[in-house]
Design goal:
By secondary structure, the chain is mostly helical. It contains 7 helices and no strands.
């Protein structure tokens, strides 16, 4: 039942982001009119009305809350892997299952989507910076969009960085356990050989 609930949730998040992107394009298109005809209060008011659709409203809050939740979960998982506690064993078992079967495809798809969203946010910030230089002073809409894209890009960047750290920690902990097991096996063989030599002599 949990998988059936997760699929509509992920689809709704993707649909909301597409709606945000389409509305953001309409907001950005109106800046071209400003750059050619100067500042117009009517155009600025129309852009401010479009901001809730562009992700500053309920949809944007849900996305930011989701990114904050993912970031806190990844930070907790990183802390759990760093210290030798019973939680580390549970995390290792969960990561082992996550890296098997179809889960790897889902994780790679989510990572690729996050990278694309991060690239889109960085590109939008670069365009807003160019408009800053053209207009001379930032407009209120520019400031709101810039702050939203900066927050979204920061959260996505941190979450991707922590995901990479978790993956590397899981790999190194697995290699360390393998080395310890091999060392224990070699030590047991040396003990058996030593006892056999002492018994024969």
């Amino acid at each position: 039942m949990k998988r059936k609930r997760d699929v509509p949730t992920s689809l709704s998040v993707l649909a909301s982001y597409l709606n945000i992107s389409i509305t953001s394009l309409s907001v950005l298109a109106s800046y071209h009119t400003i750059s050619m005809h100067g500042f117009d209060p009517a155009i600025e008011t129309s852009k401010l009305r479009l901001l809730p659709r562009a992700g500053i409203g309920l949809g944007g809050k849900k996305m930011i809350q989701l990114l904050f939740t993912v970031l806190v979960a990844e930070a907790a998982a990183t802390a759990g892997l760093l210290f030798n506690t019973p939680l580390r064993k549970l995390l290792i078992l969960g990561l082992d299952r996550l890296k098997r079967g179809r889960s790897t495809v889902m994780v790679k798809t989510l990572a690729a989507t996050a990278v694309l969203v991060l690239a889109s946010s960085i590109y939008s910030m670069a365009e807003i910076r160019l408009r800053f230089a053209e207009l001379g002073a930032p407009t209120p809409t520019d400031q709101i969009l810039m702050s939203r894209h900066l927050l979204e890009a920061s959260l996505l960047g941190y979450s991707l960085f922590l995901a990479l750290i978790i993956d590397r920690l899981h790999l190194y902990i697995g290699e360390l356990h393998g080395l310890r097991n091999s060392m224990k096996a070699v030590m047991k063989q040396n003990r058996v050989i030593g006892t056999a030599k002492t018994g024969s002599s």
